[in-house]
User: Which sequence fits this backbone?
């Protein structure tokens, strides 16, 4: 079965294709930092750039910003690899393996007469997932992705949807 999928994927993309796009995301996290043990959901926006260095393999640089919630916001920068498998004409699935660096900002706030100072933290780790790409035409496509980020400030599960433009 896998051999058949990989053989079908020969027409997945063209070597040398370059694409950029924007995406929205929902990040479901179990944050475990110092004495904090909390579950949170944050929504965000991001951008990506992709380059196909073969018909099946592409590299992607991404940046995602998650808005302030519970006095915390973050930016994740990541570099990912995708292996494209052509399921049908204009429909591709791909595993995602990458490495990300998160920059987290904790804003100053007061709670129960205790003031927490503003701080900035960083953390990094691997992310793995799966994506689906639907080609709308030769130059435009939609993507949907799920990524697990174990170890980046706890365990995060991110669902992303986006639109891309191929050059």
Assistant:
């Amino acid at each position: 079965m896998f051999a058949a999928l990989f053989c079908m994927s020969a027409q997945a993309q063209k070597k040398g294709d370059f694409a950029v796009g924007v995406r929205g995301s929902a990040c479901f996290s179990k944050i475990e930092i110092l004495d904090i043990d909390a579950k949170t959901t944050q929504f965000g926006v991001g951008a990506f750039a992709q380059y196909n260095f073969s018909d099946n393999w592409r590299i992607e640089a991404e940046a995602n910003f998650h808005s302030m919630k519970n006095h915390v916001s973050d930016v994740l920068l990541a570099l990912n690899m995708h292996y494209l498998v052509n399921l049908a004409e204009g429909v591709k699935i791909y595993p995602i393996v990458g490495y990300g660096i998160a920059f987290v900002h904790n804003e100053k706030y007061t709670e129960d007469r205790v003031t927490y100072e503003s701080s900035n933290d960083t953390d990094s780790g691997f992310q793995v997932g799966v994506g689906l790409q639907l080609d709308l035409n030769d130059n435009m496509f939609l993507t949907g992705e799920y990524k697990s980020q174990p170890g980046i400030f706890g365990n995060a599960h991110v669902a992303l949807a986006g639109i891309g433009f191929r050059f």
Notes: The helical segments are 2-8. The radius of gyration is 18 Å. Confidence is low (pLDDT under 50) at residues 1-12.
